[in-house]
Amino acid sequence: MFYLVIDILGTIAFAISGVLVAMDKKLDPFGVFIVAFVTAVGGGTLRDLLLGNTPVTWLLQPIYIYTILITVVLSILFRKQLKYLRTSLFLFDTIGIGLYTLAGVEKGLDADLLPVMCIVVGTITACFGGVIRDILCNEIPVIFRKEVYATACIIGASSYFFLIKLPIKPNYIYVVCILIVITVRLLAVKFKIALPTIYPPVESKK
Amino acid sequence: MFYLVIDILGTIAFAISGVLVAMDKKLDPFGVFIVAFVTAVGGGTLRDLLLGNTPVTWLLQPIYIYTILITVVLSILFRKQLKYLRTSLFLFDTIGIGLYTLAGVEKGLDADLLPVMCIVVGTITACFGGVIRDILCNEIPVIFRKEVYATACIIGASSYFFLIKLPIKPNYIYVVCILIVITVRLLAVKFKIALPTIYPPVESKK
Amino acid sequence: MFYLVIDILGTIAFAISGVLVAMDKKLDPFGVFIVAFVTAVGGGTLRDLLLGNTPVTWLLQPIYIYTILITVVLSILFRKQLKYLRTSLFLFDTIGIGLYTLAGVEKGLDADLLPVMCIVVGTITACFGGVIRDILCNEIPVIFRKEVYATACIIGASSYFFLIKLPIKPNYIYVVCILIVITVRLLAVKFKIALPTIYPPVESKK
């Protein structure tokens, strides 16, 4: 139940981020829906495929497709209002990655993976919906270029394996780790912290 | 048997559409073959992966790869003649999506999915070969931008679940639904029916 | 054991090729790592997914991710030295495709595929890491456009099925086939042999 709520909230958050990118590219309503759908379920689908959890979750639980459909219809209808929320695109994204990271960690644990691989699976779940979204929209994935994005997922997912050793109820640990992901990203954006560039300033001029 | 014939015809139709796009991008013969191959089997492969039907069909039945190989060789040899058929690119595509949509619906039924998910699986089978083709060729997928394409698949696949309740032989229903997909698309192109734009005219000018 | 060594060497070779392409695109360190990772494991991952070997290899054997991580860190630290090795990018690639082709053929044999399909699986293993790398970096995959690349894999993989009929120890056959792939590519590059163009010279002018 707790897991389902996490997943639905993340689905809505990511679908809206997909709608915004797709509308930027002037896609038609069907294209907007597909991009929103892929953004929302892409990371989890890749995770399920890599783990061999098939048929993938959203084929068995129609709630995901209906959730995304309603989100897309509402987003299109209220797209003018959405425009004013554009600056909060990153907020939706941030909540989504927090929720998805921990959902992914849980699936990794279910598959008896090593902690390091659970962290990888959590990060894939959170980040690859956006990667596939950017590929569909013919852009180099934004998370490869700027902002502490995946780093926030990795820190949050890693925290889980430290906190789980303490005498705290698992559900609390989940919430704390989700908040860690969100906090790390918000702080990074607020204080403009980014991964150090590895290119000399002269080269990046050209 | 009936299913196999459907699949081979669709394979040829899609492979030619892949050849035409790949030659537009001036790919070498190997690139042309890969794009044709992916266009032809990409939708079905994604469907098989999502459903967990592995090894995927074309790895077990060499008829697909040989069919595509022969189609590509003939298409390259007769590429000048093919050029005059360029306006019929959309006809090949149209037959292909009709055939593939119903092949996908059948696979969804085999996996005991809900009707709504069978429709999704049918649409993925029909449309995602073209999506992967466009991604490989570094384009925003054409079906996200114009024409009633996926819509035709959705209408045809949905018809199946209405017609199946009538006392008609399943094979006839298949043929009727395939024709519905083809008809919807042809009519849409002829009368220039497209999904309504969701962007204000001023914005789309820039 | 022999198989593991092949795989690790190929992983390092491909990861470096990924780092070089990613740094060309000015990705941040995380993006460089992901592109290196995908280049290194992408072909094998696609192979495992198509065959249904899940969870995919690298989720179960952390040695791959650690190998790639160390390779990326060293490549970034010594990136200036790497720059002088840029002309040898194709050498790393070449060794990698030789190693991966045969690793793929072996997996195809394990899955009881027909020889023609083992050759396809070997070629996918070798070539599709680079294809996914180029897609992530928003380029038309280089192997679709120039150089005898996949052709070398196909020739090397096919040789296996000829040589296996001779009374030679399998491990020797592996090494010979890997060397055939490498030799074919090196000769092709040295003598500028490419697949024949299928486009008339006038058209390619525009």
Automatic annotation (TrEMBL), chains A, B, C:
It is a multi-pass membrane protein. The chain crosses the membrane at residues 6-23, 30-46, 58-77, 84-102, 114-136, 148-166, 172-189. Residues 5-79, 91-163 form the Glycine transporter domain. It comes from the Bacteria. Keywords: Cell membrane, Membrane, Transmembrane, Transmembrane helix. The keyword Membrane applies. It is found in: Cell membrane. The keyword Membrane applies. Belongs to the UPF0126 family. This is Glycine transporter domain-containing protein.
